[in-house]
Structure to design on (219 residues):
């Protein structure tokens, strides 16, 4: 049986890692270090968090470490997806499947008791996740974002700082909803979409599209 009070490690050591680190510390989690190819990454140079190895070494480390969970702490969605796949890869001989990813929720976020958060989700300070919203694994609800009632946010989607999702909005996996954008109630945004910063989305958006402007149009 693994100990209950495990520490977490961060996979990534850049700007997004800094905010995940502070949210973890503020919520009384212990963070043991980070993985990043850059040994001078800001998690070390600004926050003095120890570097444990390169990004590619994280899955192997976790396969042999009984007491640690992890949080993906890079912001780029394609790189996050590569890390998710690496964590799901076959376990090396003698190792074990990594612990489930840890959700990191800043104590100044507000998450409704009826909302559900998946594994490895990050919810930043000032964010609101309202009644019966569902946030899938590894999604980011960044600082000050609002996810209204019954929204469905897909795996590894990123709701960027200050973005507002009206009630019953659906956001597909690997979709970025940009800083300060707005999505009207009931709108469905498919997978791998990019919503530009400040856009106002009035209508459904199809897979892989990039939409910008007010009202948002496909670019
Ligand atoms: O806007 C906000 C509030 N946050 C942004 C966040 C969502 O995304 C933030 O401002 C950044 O723009 C971005 O944060 P992130 O992903 O931490 O970016 P950056 O500070 O550039 O750090 C990325 C880390 O991943 C760096 O330390 C790189 O060494 C590493 N990295 C980036 N691309 C990579 C690659 N490593 C590998 N192995 N391969 C890559 O392609």
């Amino acid at each position: 049986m693994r100990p209950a009070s495990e520490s977490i490690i961060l996979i990534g050591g850049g700007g997004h890692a800094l905010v995940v680190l502070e949210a973890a510390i503020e919520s009384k989690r212990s963070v043991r270090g980070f993985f990043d190819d850059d040994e001078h990454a800001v998690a070390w140079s600004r926050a003095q968090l120890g570097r444990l190895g390169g990004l590619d070494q994280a899955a192997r480390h976790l396969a042999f470490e009984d007491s640690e969970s992890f949080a993906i702490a890079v912001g780029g969605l394609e790189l996050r997806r590569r890390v998710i796949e690496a964590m799901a890869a076959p376990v090396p001989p003698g190792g074990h499947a990594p612990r489930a990813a840890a959700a990191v929720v800043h104590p100044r976020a507000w998450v409704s008791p009826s909302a559900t958060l998946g594994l490895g989700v990050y919810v930043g300070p000032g964010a609101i996740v309202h009644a019966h919203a569902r946030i899938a694994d590894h999604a980011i609800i960044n600082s000050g974002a609002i996810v209204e009632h019954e929204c469905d946010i897909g795996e590894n989607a990123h709701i960027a700082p200050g973005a507002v999702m009206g009630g019953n909005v659906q956001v597909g996996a690997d979709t970025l909803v940009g800083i300060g954008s707005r999505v009207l109630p009931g709108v469905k945004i498919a997978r791998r979409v990019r919503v530009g910063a400040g856009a106002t989305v009035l209508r459904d958006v199809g897979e892989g599209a990039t939409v910008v402007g007010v009202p948002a149009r496909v670019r």
In short: The radius of gyration is 17 Å. The CA atoms of residues 52 and 204 lie 43 Å apart.
